[in-house]
Amino acid sequence: MTIEVRRAGVGDIETLRELARAIWFEHYPSIISRSQIHYMLERGYAADVVAAEIARGVEWRLASVDGRACGFAAWEAFGDRVKLHKLYVQRSVRVGGVGRALVAATAADAGERGARLVYLAVNKRNRIAIRAYVRMGFAFHRAMRIDIGHGFVMDDYEMARPVQASIRRAFSVRPVG
Ligand SMILES: CC(C)(COP(=O)(O)OP(=O)(O)OC[C@H]1O[C@@H](n2cnc3c(N)ncnc32)[C@H](O)[C@@H]1OP(=O)(O)O)[C@@H](O)C(=O)NCCC(=O)NCCS
Predict the structure, then answer these.
(1) How far apart are CA 102 and CA 63, in angstroms?
(2) Fewer CB within 10 Å, N- or C-terminus of the chain?
(3) How many CB atoms lie within 10 A of CB 12?
(4) In this predicted model, which residue has the larger pLDDT, 51 or 172?
(5) Which of 28, 95, 136, 141 to mutate to test the pocket of ligand 1 (most atoms within 8 A of CB)?
(6) Is 170 exposed, middle or buried (0-12, 13-18, 19+ CB in 10 A)?
(7) Is the pTM of this model over 0.90?
(8) How many CA atoms lie within 13 A of 127 on its CB side?
(9) Which atom in ligand 1 lies closest to the alpha carbon of residue 93?
């Protein structure tokens, strides 16, 4: 199985949206309500939202396995930190290294720009993702509860890791809050 990761641009927006829709409705119903899934997909993946993000410098990466698009990541640099906004892989190819390849590509690009830390937010009930993040060197930093409007909240952990995952930092390895 050949995994490829490449930069995604405006021409990939429909592919990214289709992947997001499929992955969110497969993965999140046990974690958040369907109405929250609809709301967050519209908020995060409407074509104009993605296009505006690309224009302002959010970096999107598209992963494929044997030539078929199967996952994506999006990240943004804030000084010496990079926020991994999104990391999604189709269920059929999970635990096959695609998520790790997307994180490695993010860390490599971020490192080239002088970033030292990659951080992200993950729903506290998203055990699959949390396990994968821990395996990829992320550690718990803090708990966050963010009001995203329309009566919905994001009940998350912030996790972080050094861009070079071998560098150890003083983050807790247990959930906080
Ligand atoms: C989180 C996610 C992106 C990981 O992608 P993936 O392609 O399965 O990840 P990889 O195969 O590269 O695995 C990376 C590491 O995590 C481990 N891992 C992945 N899924 C795991 C699981 N369910 N349980 C235990 N370990 C897991 C892998 O074994 C691997 O560790 P290793 O290389 O040390 O053996 C994927 O599960 C996903 O898309 N989940 C649904 C959407 C989601 O929740 N995204 C995150 C939003 S914050």
Answers:
(1) 7
(2) N
(3) 19
(4) 51
(5) 95
(6) exposed
(7) yes
(8) 1
(9) 7
Q: Which of 4, 62, 135, 166 to mutate to test the pocket of ligand 1 (most atoms within 8 A of CB)?
A: 135
- Yes or no: say if 66 and 1 are a contact pair by the CB < 8 Å rule: yes
Q: pLDDT tens for residues 98-132? A: 999 999 999 999 999 999 999 999 999 999 999 99
Q: Which CATH architecture has domain 3-120?
A: 3-Layer(aba) Sandwich (3.40)
Domain definitions of the chain by residue range: 3-120
- Residue whose C-alpha is closest to residue 50's, from 64, 42, 120: 42
Of all residues in the chain, the percent with pLDDT exceeding 70 is 93
Residue positions counted in the chain? 177
Write the residue with the smallest CA distance to atom 5 of ligand 1: 99
